[in-house]
Amino acid sequence: MADTTLDADVTDPEAVVDEYEEKLDDVLATVDDPVPGVDDDPRLELAGLELDRRDFLKAGAVTGAVGATAGCLGNPLGDDGSNSAGATQQSDTPDHSVPPGEHDQYYGFWSGGHSGEVRVVGVPSMRELIRIPVFEPDGATGFGHDDETSEMLAETGDVAFGDAHHPVLSESGGDYDGRYLWINDKANGRMARIDLTYFETDAITDIPNVQACHGCAVQSPDTKYVYGVGEFRTPVPNDGTNVDDTDKHWSTFTALDPESMEVQWQVRVSGNLDNADTGKSGRWAFATGYNKEEALDIQGMTHDDRDYLKAFDVDAIESALQAGRYEEVNGVKVLDGRKESSLNSGSNPIVRYVPVPKSPHGCDVTPEGQYVTASGKLSPTVTIVDIDELDSVSDPANAVVGQPKVGLGPLHTTWDGRGHGYTSVFIDSQVVKWDVETAVEAEKNSTDPVVEKIDVHYNPGHVQAVEGETTDPAGDWLVSLNKLSKDRFLPVGPIHPDNDQLIHIGDDGGGMELVMDEPVHPEPHDCVFVDRAKLDPATTWNKEDYAGEKPFVTAGKSGVERTGEESVHVKLSSKRSEFSESEFRVREGDEVTLTVTNIEGVRDIIHGVAIPQHGINLAIAPQDTRQVTFTADDPGVYWVYCTYFCSALHLEMRSRLIVEPRDN
Ligand code: RUQ
Ligand code: CUA
């Protein structure tokens, strides 16, 4: 096997960059689609610096120079010297500002990458409204601190973090219905659901047979399934057997039930899987995949000039399930969807393998549902597949109906509902707008379909247009989620924020317009937007929603109840500005279950419960009840205090935990 590791002795920064560039050039040179030529403007404008687009990542070697000019940039937007604030005041510039007291038009849900959270952002203001913890505990909201949420985390892996990439919203009739949002955990093969009434994670599933759950999609139009896309190939079961027999290593495509969050079926495939989307009619789900070579290193994974877009025929899969043509593995029905599988040999294959240029990444279906696209990553093209053709062609390759050349490093594509695709191109640091029908009519590798390119700063991953994943995109705003911010913000140490850029796309005649930069905590991958009219979040809890699971503790029902020789149940109610008990006594060594209800019915009035030296931290919203269990090991007096500044007497909102020595 060829040596693919970097030269261990190279430490000179320039040499490291050169080596990276050479390897990238090698990989790109083997793509059988030609790389864009000299007709493209290769220069990327950076104030005080000129970089060749192809060499853009070399900018890492000159960050000192960029940093040195950061204080006098003053011209981040255009030649007219306007900055983003000035630009919004020009009458012909789309106004993204939302005055004090007014609301944004859209909710945006951002994945938080390895912060394991989802962030809620108002669009177009780009103000972050709140963060919803999903795979990691969060002190601010008490998630993962109370019994219920900490047990949910513990039972689904008990790992320190999750890597959340792709938020997807529940749909009814092809439109967002405001019920749920799902998000994957790439690091641990999990899928989580957020209840959009309470904006809280209410379920996590640890998916069997999957190590890295990457892509995420719901089956349009009515959310019949939620899909988790297993990326890494691992032995199944992964218990030390078959470590070297890579034929017994799998990537699987998983379908979960949206309500029960239980796995319904899995399809194991040839090669691996990456990102996903679904057709609009309910029949098809799609996933890109790189590493058709089933290699274990980068050189092997990028060896062949073709990979596959995989088209999963849901009807055929359900028929095969009904016919019992599955194997039960770790409690899950697994269908063999590999290329040579007997389930793929007849006239009704469960997976069609559509050849596309090597290592495709983004997988995106057009709003009306006619085409699915695979964005090239290592090819400068986007491959367009006609979904209806999948049924009529004998060779899936013939379902490819277009392949516009958009630029270097295409990653993801989104839609404006007016017939345009917008593709992020990572290496070129641009968002490229192209015309879908022109692309279908044009020759492959034509640049004719390209309508416009806009520079972004820098190296975009996902792009998302507002409601771009519905059948009826709003078409006014687009966000480019850029991985690197470099010179855009005050330097804050070596770990920089990413840069989300808001771009107005509502004026086809006037062109795309960069409106603002938004620094973001690492590392969002993807986002999804929904018009505010389609969500109806609660402002207080409805206690009926947890009746039978947890008590609603009023002042009259509060107190200490001994439940065993070494266990007590402490019940408290809370309101401004007191807990119902000014103290509660337990004995050394007791297991203490503490149940606290916030009896207020007024929105915004949250009470917290913190107990020093016990790690206890609850946040209780109006009409909510939270429970936590701990052991009172150390005799002494501990002040219990409210953590949310709830009233003028908030500091006085206290109680005392008294742990009496057991020998007394
Ligand atoms: S995938 S950009 Cu999960 Cu592109 Cu991150
Ligand atoms: Cu209740 Cu502060």
Show the helix and strand layout.
Blueprint: H1 13-29, E1 43-46, E2 49-52, H2 63-69, H3 84-89, E3 106-111, E4 117-123, E5 127-133, H4 147-155, E6 168-172, E7 175-185, E8 190-195, E9 200-206, E10 213-218, E11 226-230, E12 234-235, E13 249-256, E14 263-269, E15 276-278, E16 284-289, H5 298-301, E17 306-313, H6 314-322, E18 327-329, E19 332-336, E20 351-357, E21 363-365, E22 371-375, E23 382-386, H7 389-392, E24 400-402, E25 410-415, E26 420-425, E27 430-435, H8 436-441, E28 450-455, E29 460-465, E30 477-482, E31 498-504, E32 513-520, E33 527-531, E34 559-564, E35 567-575, E36 578-579, E37 583-587, E38 590-598, E39 607-611, E40 616-620, E41 625-632, E42 636-641, E43 654-660
Parallel strand pairs: 14-19, 35-38, 37-43
Antiparallel strand pairs: 1-2, 3-4, 3-33, 4-5, 6-7, 7-8, 8-9, 10-11, 11-13, 12-13, 13-14, 15-16, 16-17, 17-20, 18-19, 21-22, 22-23, 23-24, 25-26, 26-27, 27-28, 29-30, 30-31, 31-32, 34-35, 35-36, 38-41, 39-40, 42-43
Walk me through this protein's architecture:
- There is one protein chain.
- This protein is mainly β.
- The protein has 2 domains: 106-534, Methylamine Dehydrogenase, Chain H; 549-660, Cupredoxins -  blue copper proteins (Immunoglobulin-like, Sandwich).
- 9% of the residues lie in helices and 38% in strands.
- The chain has 8 helices and 43 strands.
- The strands form 11 sheets. Strands 10, 11, 12, 13, 14, 18 and 19 form a 7-stranded mixed β-sheet that branches.
- Strand 1 and strand 2 form a beta hairpin.
- The longest helix has 17 residues, at 13-29.
- The radius of gyration is 27 Å and the shape is globular.
- The relative contact order is 0.10.
- Residues 34-51 and 56-91 have low confidence and may be disordered.
- The protein binds (dicuprio-$l^{3}-sulfanyl)-sulfanyl-copper (RUQ) and dinuclear copper ion.
